[in-house]
Amino acid sequence: MTTPSSTVPENSGPDSTGRDLTRNNPVPDHRTGRPGRRPSSQPHRPDRRLPWLGPLLRRLHFYAGILIGPFILIAALTGAAYAISPTLEKAIYADELSVPATDHSLPLADQVTAANAVVGDADATLSAVRPAPEPGDTTRVMYSDPSLGESESRAIFVDPSTAEVVGDLTVYGTSGALPLRTWIDQMHRSLHLGDVGRFYSELAASWMGIVAAAGIVLWVLRARRTRKPLAMLRPSRKHQGLRRTFSWHASVGIWAAIGMLFLSATGITWSQLGGDNVTKLRAALSWETPAVSTELGGASATGEHARHGGNSSAEAAGSAADHAAIDPADFDMMLSMGHGVNIDTGLVEIRPPADDHSAWVVQEIQRSFPTKVDAVAFDPTTMEVTDRVDFADYSVPAKLARWGIDVHMGSMFGLANQIVLFVLAIGIASMVVWGYVMWWQRRPKRGPVTRFEAARVGRAPERGALNEAPWWGMGAVALGAIAIGLFLPLVGISLAVFVVIDVLLGVRARRRRSRDAVLVRR
Known about the structure:
Blueprint: H1 53-92, H2 94-97, H3 108-119, E1 125-130, E2 139-144, E3 152-158, E4 165-172, H4 179-190, H5 194-225, H6 241-268, H7 273-284, E5 290-291, E6 301-302, H8 313-317, H9 329-339, E7 348-351, E8 360-364, E9 375-378, E10 385-389, H10 396-408, H11 414-441, H12 471-487, H13 489-521
Antiparallel strand pairs: 1-2, 2-3, 3-4, 5-6, 7-8, 8-9, 9-10
């Protein structure tokens, strides 16, 4: 006979039919007195680990959004301005860029002579000539000037039908950006702070790709748990507050993610630290962009695009010869010879020899589709071809790099390209703002407020996700962080800062909770 205090139920053990009644009457836990798990003849299985990848990416996404968000926001807004700057440029500088269209044009010799007369004896050297590509366009006669900044040239705009000078402006890089677009470009690239300011854009470009990749994974994980994943592709209007803001952030983010990855990858190539590693990697893999050699008797060299504008005419020609010593008629001759080799577009730049040991260069500069960047070099004495580079002979990686840069700058597909970039940039900026709004909306609103919650901002996602990860997961995260940190040094440095901040906040939170607990007990 058993007593009510017995720890074994009366109906435990097998009955007359052989069934084990302990299946419905588990044995109480001897430590708590509560029903425990029934004994099992099967081997013990460890508890399944809690999900770790999602929480880890969510915490990384949060910290990057909060701490790097301002840099991404500035880069997005200035990028949106740069996207529409070519269209603004055409309107603002219409007098310099456009003239009445006619059926004939004067030789380049007359146009160069007119430009030389304007420059006079100024401390400038003739570096390049860009003939008018279409009727109604102006010819640019360009001069290097020591008083100008890096990659800048002085451009004299000439009416090709009358040889009348209609403008005198500073232009930047191979893109030939005029002052307004140059100002916006410098703002986007360095905040007008020089090389130091370029760290901001490198930080934004590097982390934007990581944030986008983490966001894609988080979106997929959430879509797998919902009954209507397609509904996550558009913002919800039936919710309010935090859920509505999150809906906008997530739906716009998944549409913009591919564009963010693209802008991040191409933007890194212009950066200082990460960009240098990209250049070394491309050189190691023979993925460099070929460039025509100006050395007499030399072979094709390799060259990289310059910072957001390509190599300037002055840089490409080195210390260009004194314009007084160059026969203006030679520009007509070189253009005609180039047409006989591989030059077949109106967007052309003709560069005179940098010195007695250099060649003339005639190069296509059409960055819109179809890309035309063929180039040919001529010996100024023998008039023979010393080197040529054809875009058709570029390697696939070199072509992809060329196209990626041109799409990033909005020149590949013209106005359509610029509109897409503008919309994408505004979307990125909006996601940053929505992220901060969600941080504010997640702040504690009810119940007692401790000193830890006094800031009234949302808390970060729970820490400790890596504790749930298997050994290979921890190893993959560690190796990935090290590899990315070495290839993109600013990411490595900022990631270390994230970890330090996270640790300090954790220590601070524990101390405050301990003090609050002591105060409650008192």
